[in-house]
Design brief:
It is built from 13 helices and seven strands. By secondary structure, the protein is mainly alpha-helical.
């Protein structure tokens, strides 16, 4: 089978000789990257996976047993809209860009590379998890997320190769050369260099970090550079499943912990093989804060430039806003000044990272409400929560300062003294890891997590999702 038949696409690949040549070079490198850095130990197994073979409502979710290296990584864009316009910024209302506008070329390439880098990074972070899966259902979900992140890498590489010429091809190669957590050639964003080596990390990551992806992709789905907007719109349909995995995964962990607490009110959940709520809370604090960093600085000239250029919009720009130019208006946020938190007013366009982050926080709160309902359902009084957005930040206005979980400015010593109460300790991580024993019998599940309410695509939980 030739290359172009192996790559399902709706970008007319068979007609585009230049793109064919670029992909021909890149594909073997991608496959060797997948082999070296993709899920370890399961490459030859049949996995019941969803493959996108078309963008239509039927074609984008085709289920069958597939060996992961044979997954058909495709290139899909949502269909073009007739007479698409730039939806915001200084060029609001002008025809959408079908080619890369020269003056925005560097900015646009940077946006695409930064997004693209997260996709293989997460596969690298998760590559050992298969060995400790709590059930075949979860194992399958992990691999589904992994192959789709691989496809998202393809989506960004397509844009680089099709629209950026030589330097785009170089950037596409570099996406396969950086490595998550490698001090010499790390991934671009810090959340993607953190280890994700147990399933509680995985669920927190897909809940909080993939959800950052949803908001970045949503902002780019508004882009005036139409190929980017159409690519991101399609990626969002797949991204929804990743967040489902994280949200329901954590919900099932919380539910199981609550059951153990209810059945044995006088015992430590650890003695019963469950994950204590305080450890779950620390994992939430860790991944939520790192994911907040991904939105960038609170006050950002980049965000203003990207918006002005019509490259990156706000969340649901068309649906939620009437003023798409946003040159008037301001946003007030708290910044640290002379050792105190003080309000500062900034022009609206400079606060767009913070505004997008605010949308994200609202979305995360809904997840917390679901998990707290799982606690209430078992008559447990404790509740989980999100820490304040200033807590444990490494990017933006709050980086370099210290805050407690409520967002109060505190001294470094106070932070250090409380750190073990707020963030996972080595002992917490070791305890969680000690629970991670693989369960691979059909229909069985590990003791520390509840089974899902339903299986995948009409199949029961007790289904051979992966043939081992
Ligand atoms: Fe992705
Ligand atoms: Fe994802």
């Amino acid at each position: 089978m030739n290359l172009y038949e192996r790559i399902p696409n709706n970008v007319n690949l068979s007609e585009d000789k230049r793109l064919q040549r670029a992909l021909e070079k890149w594909l073997p490198n991608f496959l060797s990257w997948w082999h070296d850095m993709g899920p370890e130990g399961f490459q030859e197994k049949d996995v019941w996976l969803r493959t996108a073979v078309d963008v239509g409502s039927e074609g984008w979710a085709h289920f069958d047993y597939v060996k992961m290296p044979e997954y058909r990584w495709g290139i899909f864009l949502e269909p073009a809209q007739a007479e698409a316009k730039v939806g915001f910024g200084d060029n609001y209302g002008q025809p959408a860009y079908q080619e890369v506008p020269g003056e925005f070329r560097n900015a646009l390439r940077r946006i695409i590379v930064t997004q693209g880098d997260t996709e293989p990074a997460s596969v690298e972070q998760q590559r050992q998890l298969g060995h400790t899966c709590p059930s075949l259902y979860d194992l399958r979900n992990l691999f589904q997320v992994n192959v789709e992140e691989g496809r998202h890498l393809w989506a960004m590489v397509y844009l680089l190769q099709a629209y950026f010429g030589r330097d785009g091809r170089d950037e596409a190669d570099a996406l396969l050369e950086r490595r998550s957590g490698n001090p010499d050639k790390p991934r671009i964003l810090e959340a993607f260099n953190q280890p994700c080596d147990d399933w509680l990390n995985f669920f927190a990551f897909t809940m909080f970090t993939d959800r950052d992806g949803k908001y970045q992709l949503s902002a780019l789905a508004e882009s005036g550079f139409e190929p980017l907007a159409r690519t991101c719109r399609f990626m969002l349909t797949e991204e929804a499943h990743h967040m489902f995995v994280g949200d329901t995964g954590l919900s099932r962990v919380v539910k199981r912990t609550a059951q153990l607490m209810k059945e044995n009110p006088n015992e430590d959940v650890r003695q019963l093989g469950g994950i204590p709520l305080e450890i779950i809370q620390k994992y939430i604090n860790f991944w939520f804060s790192y994911s907040l960093d991904l939105f960038g600085g609170e006050i950002s000239s980049n965000s203003a430039d990207f918006f002005a250029a019509g490259l990156k919009g706000r969340f649901k720009e068309q649906e939620q806003y009437t003023d798409h130019v946003a040159t008037e208006g301001s946003f007030t946020l708290l910044v640290v000044e002379n050792g105190k938190l003080m309000p500062r007013e900034v022009p609206l366009r400079n606060a767009l990272n913070e505004i997008l982050r605010g949308e994200y926080v609202k979305d995360c709160e809904k997840g917390l409400a679901r998990w707290n309902k799982a606690l209430a359902d078992e008559a447990i009084n404790e509740r989980l929560y999100l820490p304040n957005v200033r807590f444990h930040r490494h990017v933006g206005e709050y980086a370099g300062h210290h805050f407690d979980l409520d967002g109060n400015l505190i001294a470094k010593d106070e932070f250090e003294n409380n750190k073990s109460e707020w963030l996972p300790t080595i002992e917490d991580r070791e305890y969680v890891r000690s629970l991670m024993k693989p369960v691979t019998e059909i229909g069985k599940i590990a003791n520390w997590i509840a089974p899902p309410a339903a299986g995948i695509k009409g199949k029961p939980f007790a289904f051979e999702y992966v043939r081992l």
